Amino acid sequence: MKKNTIQLSITFAVLLIGMVIVLQLIRMETFQQWFPPNSSPENEFPVMTAEEPKKGEKEIRVFLHQNESDLSEGAIGNMKQALEYAKVPYEQVEREEIKNIAPSPYSIIVLAGEHSKEWPRDVITEFVEEGGRVMIAGRFVDSEWNDLLGIKKVEGYKGDLHGISFEEELFPGYVDLDASSNLFSHSIADVELKEEAAVPLTVEEEPLMWLHEKGEGKVMFWNSTITVDKTTRGMLLQSLSMLPPAFVSAQASIKVFHIDDFPSPIPFETPEKINQEYDKSIRDFYTDVWWKDMKEIGENLDFTYTGYVIGTYRDDTELKGEDLREILRYPMLYFGRDLLSEGGELGLHGYNHQSLVTPSEPIDETFGYVPWKNNRQMVEAIKEVEDVFKYYFPDEEIKSYVPPSNVINTTGIKALEQSLPELKTISSLYIGGDKGSLEQEFGPSDVKNNLYYFPRMTSGYAESPEDQFLQTDVIANFGVFSHFVHPDDVLDSYRAKGRSWSQMRSRLQDMGEHIEENYSYLEAMTQSNAAKKMKSYQESELTVSYEEDRIVITGDEILKPSEFLIRLENGKFLNEGKYSYGSVDKLSEGLYRVTVKEPEAEILIKERSK
Amino acid sequence: MIYRQSSLVRKSIELILVIAGLGMIDQIFGLEMREWTLNPFLITVLLFSLRYGLTIGISSFLLVLVYYLVDMVIGGGDIFLVFYSFDRFINVALLLLVAVIGGMYGTSFRERYESLSDRNSELYEENENVKEVIQSVEESMKAMQNRVLESEYTLTRIYQVGKALDQPTPYLIRNEAIEIISDLFQSREVAIYHVDASFSAMRLSVKRGGPEAFPQTVFVSGEDSMLQRLFSNKTVTIRSVEDDEDAPVLAGPIIQNGKVQEVLIINDLDFERLTNYEIQILSVLLDWLSDRIDKSRASMQKEEEKKMYPGTCIYFKEAFEEKVIEQQDRKEKFDVDYSVIEVPYVNAGAVSKVEMEIILRSYLREVDIVGFEEGSGVFYFLLPGTSPENAGIVRDRLQKVMDEKVVQYVQ
């Protein structure tokens, strides 16, 4: 017994001393330097090039004719952008050139707007009757066109219609939006269609988009003004793909998940809501509940997080050096390092949460932000927060930036470029938001072309049908998913929409499951890797040759592997399975996803016996 | 029985193999056991610490901690967070706590077990000793009971002994005496010797024991010998360390007319039984035996005289044959040799039988019996204790005596 007591005393003494030493070491600044944090993964995206592009006897030729009106410019602009993203070749043609277009099932003329009188109707009718394809990407009323368009009767315009209904699946994942939805506000032509017109899309039981076969050709009519919205690009592309016998579009296959304001200083006061629901401090809630759940969601639903650091929530620049380091100590050491160890990336959200705009640059005043005096002040503040970032992550570089409230302007972008030489990407919004917000397209910045724009499409935990629609539309266009959330959304009853964290988490899981179930081929990655892949995708060149019984795809510097969508007209199909060039998977009736691992792929088309 | 493994090397190998095996399974199948509620590594630490105590318990914790860190490095994790992240640190702390508490309990349990085991061994030894003591006490008690309550020397027993010795002839008395003494003293080798008148030799009368147990004749030599002490002291005599090795263990005199006529010899005697009381009993028994022999002999003498030629101790032929039969019984019962020789006397009638007896007795032993058949003129000699091989010598000598002395005397 005596021996036992001595052993017990010695053991506990050693343990106590050991734990005190460990705790003291942890408190020491150097402790974290002894164990350097993991680095953000830097993916390589190999490319492949065929010996020579194979141009067969038939190629898709999309002829865009744009008139001078918002409707025409908006719709044709959207179509043009959608085709570029999907790597489908197109040509812009003037009115006089239309007559020169040889009718072919693979030749598609796209028109939009109320310019029917300006278009050569007879030429277009003859073009269709002889096998050509026409897409009217914006409604107009002109009874002279009724016969060509499959309209029995037209009675002017009808406005203030909302929502959208899919009578047949256009692309997996699109959801019906009812009349209460504000995503789309339609102005349509009040028409009665001929029996033979096929109507895949409707709005409030009115035909929204239909197909009419005339002679040997087909005409598609988008009976709405929503085609000017960016949110219809995917639908425009997928509906266009229904016109020719076969249609190939490319997918970038990228999935990015942003967490803005993470890591960031943790508020001192714990909101009553968190206290009541979890009986935890805000720090413990973030640590034990929110971040734990987010990691679990990320692991289960294949999300790679990119977090964006905020230095302080003060609206001045007084906090510097050690003080700034101290308030970021726990967020950086715990959340920052853990995010990196999960394979994520740390980007910058700002020195503080004040958007990088000067008083002369636009911003929504309701934000209550204090404008920056000038570029110099911005640079100094960014360098200050970069110093803190480098202190905690000496081997990491800030490659990605998300502007606070998605608002930034030329001065801010230049300040970023000056202060962060390693910065590669700025991610704001794909669909414009508040005043002053930076609405982006995927591609080089128009301010500093060494910076790349990689916008986010959706945000928040409570995914609405509109969010899901928007996500689906971008994926239908070129296969990119980019979503962002804030840790403090749960603390803000407005942003949380009155939901508890468990409800928000559940909705986020639903979104992840929807994406994973429908688009499992999207590759989860950090923002900087996503930008790298997207640039490579955009720089690649694609040649697609269409034959009766095959499609030949040849690429120049295309990603390895590359993903393509192939739509075939009724009566034709692809056999699913693995091939020497890759694999074929069916997404829906007539729509296939083809993975290509060779720079040249010959995909055989089968025809159902009639 | 607690599992005992004293080899530190074996314990260490066992520990390393188990943790390495678990680690391999974890890595190969990507099971992420660290995250399990029923974490196999935690259970391993618990089992090892309980089984082998604190040292191996702490060792198992350190090994598992090393595996955790290696697993984190392989999986791209951040080791710093093991110490900085409370939920991860608490997992490690829990592991350590389990190792320490389990180890302490294991060590304590082992010590307690060993203490109890030692105590048990001591108690077992004590128990064995107590058993032996109890057995001795029981034996003593039994002996005491035998002596006190069921003693061989109770009045009943003494009465039985007296009754047994109440035989009509010395020969039967001796036989009974041998049986009784053998039974009383738990001895398998008991004999009664007849002492010569010269006290120089003793002839075997009756014995109990194997063929080699007692010689037919014992010569009494040396002044300080045990038998000399017996003859002089006339008391029960026990062999001393100074006596010869072949001297009997105990000898007791059978006295008649103040002389030691016979000697009781006991060879394999249990000394524990030989107390003063026993010796006293034996002395009484010998006295009683002497008295009984003396009386029976006197009584027999009257009876025997009728079977003898008048004035002699020469038996009629028929009576002689009865003696032979008795001797035959003794041989069968006690394995005592005897011989019968016949010596024809051609001049029968020339010398009186009284004279013949006087002549022959000087060549015979006291125990020898003489018979005569008038019609055939043959002398018969019953020689107790004489083997048939040696009988020829006696016969030749007797024949010679009768041929020489009797004839010469007649002339």
From TrEMBL, chain A:
The chain crosses the membrane at residues 6-26. It holds the Pfam family DUF2194. It comes from the Bacteria. Keywords: Membrane, Transmembrane, Transmembrane helix. This is Polysaccharide deacetylase. It comes from Salimicrobium humidisoli. The lineage of its organism: Bacteria, Bacillati, Bacillota, Bacilli, Bacillales.
UniProtKB/TrEMBL annotation, chain B:
The chain crosses the membrane at residues 12-30, 89-109. Keywords: Coiled coil, Membrane, Transmembrane, Transmembrane helix. Residues 113-147 form a coiled coil. InterPro entries: GAF-like_dom_sf (IPR029016). Gene3D superfamilies: 3.30.450.40. This is GAF domain-containing protein.
